[in-house]
Amino acid sequence: MAKTQSFSDKAKGKKKDSTVNVKLIKTVKTPKGTFKFSEKFVKIEDISKITDIK
Q: Distances in Å between the alpha carbon of 30 and those of 11, 34, 39?
């Protein structure tokens, strides 16, 4: 039997995500005086709102 759904049919069904993934790196100074870095990915609606991330 032949396949009823092709790859192009599957690709048409997916909608595009309107958000932008941004890697956020925060620096924290420890009591010893060294620095630690914490990284995480954040989804934002528009790249112009990048300065509003805390």
A: 48, 5, 16
Q: Rg (Cα) of the chain, in Å, rounded?
A: 21
Please list the pLDDT of the chain residue by residue as tens digits (54 residues). Answer: 677 878 887 777 667 778 889 999 999 999 999 999 999 999 998 888 888 887
- The partner residues of 43 in beta bridges, in order of sequence, read 21
Task: 14-23: list long-range contacts, CB under 8 Å, 24+ apart.
Answer: 18/45, 19/43, 19/44, 19/45, 20/44, 20/45, 20/46, 20/47, 22/50, 22/53
